[in-house]
Write a structure and sequence with these properties.
417 residues; mainly beta; 5 domains; four-stranded mixed sheet
């Protein structure tokens, strides 16, 4: 006659027939008069002893069943839906790393500091609670009450430090005023009379007595008010202090700047800067010395047409300058510059028919024929080119000296004008 197996809660788990084996669960149940029951029964006890130790989970678990994962060395419990890991908890007054084999997720409770740690595969890292400076210096949420709106909560985040909960900063979504004793934190250093909380970030000491700006704002509000000098101490503006042993302080002057289009006007229209062209402009530059990346001094002249960089030009034509077409022409003006280091007569015109002509320095120059390094160059009868000076040429026709040798038909070399 079969028998029924009931769980502790009374629910039926299986009905076992006579002389048969039931494999409804991971344990094997024996029917009455089953021959050879000893082996099956002892294997059931062995499975219970090992908690179904295997690299894979049991296939027919029931709620509450334990399984030891022999791969991860973790014990798991079945919740009637999933297998959930049970972390190993080690209790010790010192870090137990090295004393036993731990796996990722194991826990250690420090009985000395009453803190919980988790194992990350190599070390135990703090879960909590924090102690010491980690607790006394952090952001906390609370509320304040405005004197202008009694009993109306104002929600903020405050930076707190110290064992008396001294507030050093407030982050607020609106501006309002508080009085001593209304703060959720008992100590607010520097309060004398009313304290103004600005929208944004307000630092303690940023102002009292109903006027935050009068004492100098350290940090609050929009970008326009994010940083101001304390004018009661430094009339010249913000002061930067060096990090050297001398502790020198340097005043940072205020700049009144407006932007129109791409040009920034600093202190009116006297000084401008255009980021797109990297141009700084003013009426007069006064200093000890200047330096430039490029190497020639050039001046704008009106040309009768557009000319390429390196073209040799002479005074003449329908405008001020034209291309050379005569050997050793004493009316030589110079060479069309590529990147002048110093530009003169910039107001003469800005189009391509008013090129910069190099008068001094080193520039690329079109040359023709054999050129010897260091040789004097004069205009060529080939339009726009220079060539090596001949012995009977007029010295007033010299353009400059060749900085390179050249043996081709036509080309460009560096020339010292």
């Amino acid at each position: 006659m079969p028998y029924i197996l009931n769980k502790t809660n009374g629910s039926i788990i299986a009905t076992v027939q006579d002389a048969a084996l039931d494999t409804t669960t991971d344990l094997t149940f024996l029917g009455k008069n089953y021959a050879g029951y000893g082996e099956v029964q002892n294997e059931n006890f062995l499975k219970l002893l090992e908690n179904f130790s295997n690299t894979s989970a049991p296939t027919k678990p029931i709620e509450g069943q334990l399984w030891f994962n022999s791969s991860s060395k973790k014990i798991n419990v079945y919740d009637n839906t999933n297998w959930k890991g049970v972390a190993n908890l080690e209790v010790a007054s010192s870090d137990p790393v090295g004393t036993k084999n731990f796996t990722v997720g194991d826990l250690w409770f420090d009985s000395g500091s009453a803190q919980l740690y988790g194992y990350n595969g190599s070390n135990f890292v703090l879960v909590g609670p924090q102690t010491g400076d980690d607790v006394t210096a952090n952001w906390r949420g609370s509320r304040e009450f405005s004197t202008l709106e009694p009993n109306t909560p104002k929600y903020n985040i405050k930076a707190v430090i110290g064992d008396r909960n001294e507030v050093i900063a407030v982050v607020s979504h609106e501006s309002y005023t508080i009085e001593p004793g209304t703060s959720s934190f008992p100590v607010w250093d520097g309060i004398t009379g009313q304290e103004i909380i600005k929208k944004g970030i307000t630092l303690v000491g940023s102002g009292t007595s109903g006027n935050s700006e009068a004492a100098g704002v350290y940090f609050w509000g929009s970008a326009a008010h994010s940083l101001r000098s304390n004018t009661s101490t430094y009339s010249t503006g913000i002061v930067a202090t060096s990090n050297t042993n001398t502790n020198n302080a340097y005043a940072v002057p205020f700049i009144n700047a407006t932007t129109t289009g791409s040009t920034t006007y600093i202190d009116g229209t006297g000084l401008t800067y255009n980021p797109s062209t990297k141009t700084l402009a003013t009426s007069i530059f006064d200093g000890v010395a200047t330096s430039a990346y490029y190497a020639d001094l050039a001046e704008r002249y009106a040309a009768d047409t557009e000319y390429e960089v390196g073209t040799v030009v002479v005074i003449g034509g329908s405008k001020e300058i034209t291309v050379t077409h005569t050997h050793a022409d004493i009316s030589v003006a110079g060479i069309i510059s590529q990147h002048p280091a110093y530009r003169m007569n910039s107001g003469a015109g800005t189009d391509e028919t008013h090129p910069y002509v190099a008068l001094r320095g080193r520039v690329p120059c079109k040359v023709i024929g054999h050129i010897k390094k260091g040789a004097l160059l004069v205009t060529s009868s080939y339009p726009g080119y220079a060539e090596m000076m001949k012995s009977d040429d007029n010295p007033n026709a010299v353009i400059g000296k060749a900085l390179q040798s050249f043996d081709g038909a036509k080309g460009i070399i560096e020339v010292l004008v």
